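Give me structure tokens for this 512-residue protein.
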Amino acid sequence: MKNKIFFAAFLLIIICLTGCEDFLTDKPESVLTQVDFYTTPIRINQGVIGCYAGLANIQKDEWMYTELRSDNTCQNQTGSSETHRITQTDIDFFRISSSLPDLRDFWYKIFQNISNINAVLPSVADNKHISNENLRAQYEGELLFLRGYHYYILVNLFGDMFKITKVIGPNEAKKIPRSPVSEIYSEIIIPDLKKAAEELPSSYSAADLGRATKWAAKGILAKAYMMLGGSDNLKLAKKELEDILTLSPHDLLTGTGAYANIFSITNEMNKEIIFAVRYKGGSSGIGSPFWGTFAPLGSANQFLKVGTPLGYNNPTYELMNLFNVNPNDTRKDACFRVWNKSSTVAIPYISKYMDASMTQPLQGENDWIILRFADIKLLYAEILAQDGNFANAHIPLNDVRVRAGLDGVDPFGSDVEALDAVYAERRLELAFENQRWFDLLRMVKSYNDPDKPMKILKKHTFETDWDILYSKYNPMQPPEERFYIKERLLLPIPQAEIDTNNEMVIPQNPSY
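Here you go.
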């Protein structure tokens, strides 16, 4: 599938993914080109594949707005004057500016891909262009899955959102207000993912591995229900998770080195992986940037054959110490390692995305896993902890622990005890996979405490990691508690988006 998706994607990008000055204002001639292009099964397939490629373009920066803001990773060179490190420090310390160019680019990439999805969707609404109903339904399901997933990310990072479900021009774009999060869930995320789950196949041939399946749609749908919270939504999420656990072909990898093997570039799309963003290393320009981005600063050719290791997104000492508590945990080396730069300098780095074969700078082979079976197991345990079955939450939890070489835990005596254990296990199992941020957000509902995420983040910053990471760096601009407020769980709307709209006032998120 890698050749099929990414090489065909370049044709699509050349034809119709030309840049826009802002996220909604496609030039009229660009809109016409998109609409007129998708008139044959081959071209429609190219359009669908191009939308996967757009997701890959977005994913390379998502860690800055999820993992870096959590208690899992940090910018450990906070005293640096290098622009990107200043930016990451500001993101890490919740003092991000609405005018940050990186944030604007991330936002535009998401909405550009939503625009591309909306451009292809009308061509698969009926059998006008595709006579094979199964193929038509598959393409529609893939596009709806991608759009639902994009909006799931948007509302959880930015809050109230612009509701765009068709290709529009600049004049119409300026008349669209931000819609409440609940409305985006009820009118886009939930219906898109539900229909995707109905239309998508259960599996693909080897040539198409990586395209979204019904299990991927059900998994993200379950996460959407869980983020909404409440007993009714938890029941709906539980059903989706049970379907994956009992009916899907997915399972935990087992055996020697099983955990590290999940992420191996020689074992891509293994049975544990439900959905991943796919990259292809080499000289084609469609490789993964993660190993070059995360390899330790100053390590030169000790880790990379080519390029300069950037040393971004470092593990926090708090998280590393949690791994160190149990030396039998087989996940530790697969998640992070420490490079002894000298006899006095040790640099921790993320080891989950290593690619020793990389031949071009920032062009690795590593896929980025968005959803895997262990995630589903632990989500199920999380629901059991909340719906009155907390005494059984240890069962799926222990499946994951035993695979990691740990002893199982006994049945829990309360919902809070179960929740604490599940979230602690998720933090270790899914470290550096951009999941921790969404776990923190769900805690608002699961613990019924709107301040729970920031309590955790403040403790990490001002207590656990303070002396090791923060107090000795950049004393002119240390983290400030005034920024650690629940309103800043949301990112700001890029100021450029607000400034370019002269038709209505677009409200900025509170505290920015």
